Amino acid sequence: MAVRDLTKTFESRSGTVTALDRVSLTVPRGEIHGIVGRSGAGKSTLIRCLTGLERPTSGEVVVAGEDITVLRGDQLRAARRRFGVVYQHANLLDSRTAADNVALPLEIAGWEKARIDARVTELLDLVGLSDRARNHPGQLSGGQQQRVGIARALAADPEILLCDEPTSALDAATTGSILGLLRELRDRLGITVVIITHEPSVVREVCDAVTLLGDGAVIEQGRLGALISDPSNRLHRELIPLVEPAADGLTRLQVALGHPDATVGTIDGILALLRREGIESDVAAATVETIAGRRVGRLLVELADPSQVASAHKVLDGANLHPEVAA
Predict the structure, then answer these.
(1) What does the pLDDT profile of the chain (327 residues) look like in tens digits?
(2) Is residue 288 located within the same domain as residue 202?
(3) Please, how many CA atoms are within 13 Å of residue 147, restricted to the half-sphere of its CB?
(4) 20: which of 3, 6, 10, 226 is 20 to 30 A away, CA to CA?
């Protein structure tokens, strides 16, 4: 899928509002791509443009070599079937069982009953709910309902699974389970997955690449491993949160771990580096994680002697640790 210079404007009483401003991104087949941004960033408008529910003011959305923004009628409806959509809430029909909810889009598409039954059985097994086929939504947990929603989205064998805040209504343990399922489906089916989210933790957990939106425009974009390794990127800070202690007048330097050019890659190594230069220090706070197969993090180094901040900054900068004065 390729989005090229996508722009969407709306007219309001106060003038023209630009919801999307020349947004471009490419998602190769089989990639899990996160689109992250805070409220008002343009995520909802982008979803509607991707699926043909909203016609952009300009730009293209190309899927399988076809620009869906210029399609109409039956051609547009056929193009929409390339997308399976998973919503924040599963939106299951209470009157239908899990199996019947998964079957619904196939019934609408006119499939024969025997073919529907076989496909539903396959999909419920795929999402780990074979034993829940006859349960109604009220008999399922939130995570199980979301699994049914994923099975339903996969019913017509789409090329792209578009997930709109798929875990924001779930607890942490269930979120991990659903993200693991999405990764497993990508690996087994070779399907492309696009996850729209405001939660950096979702991107950190499952995405191969990420696009950060802000005020309708692309702020940062790239492979996750590269973005989280570079402390100059905004996503580096958002994806590696650092719980900072209360300000107390102490002098601290904030340091990035995991940059590919750094000569020191561990907390102990950083403290030892400073100690060799006669600079005594300790760690006030740290966050270290493995993201996209790379060990990355941020930490606050607390200096025993505030007069040595310039010397410490020079030592850390020389090791490509990108120090910043934090207090």
Answers:
(1) 999 999 999 988 888 999 999 999 999 999 999 999 888 899 989 999 998 899 999 999 999 889 999 999 999 988 988 999 998 888 999 999 999 999 999 999 899 999 999 999 999 999 999 999 999 999 999 999 999 999 999 998 999 999 999 998 888 899 999 999 999 999 999 999 999 998 888 998 899 999 999 999 999 999 998 888 888 888 888 888 776 665 666 788 888 888 888 899 889 999 999 999 999 999 988 888 888 888 888 888 999 998 999 999 999 999 988 888 875
(2) no
(3) 27
(4) 226
CA gap 81, 77 in Å, rounded: 7
Which domain does 155 fall in, by range? 2-234
Q: Are 175 and 251 contained in the same domain?
A: no
Q: Which of 203, 234, 265 is the last residue of a domain?
A: 234
3-class secondary-structure state, position 220: strand
For the chain, strand residue ranges (E) read 2-12, 15-26, 32-36, 58-63, 66-67, 83-86, 160-164, 192-197, 209-214, 217-223, 252-257, 281-291, 294-303, 324-325
Q: If we measure between CA atoms, which residue out of 184, 210, 182, 181 comes closest to residue 196?
A: 210
Rounded CA gap, 299 and 193, in Å? 33
Tokens, residue 137: 């939504």
Q: Domain boundary at 176, 199, 234, which?
A: 234
Q: Are 248 and 189 found together in one domain?
A: no
pTM of the predicted protein model:
0.87
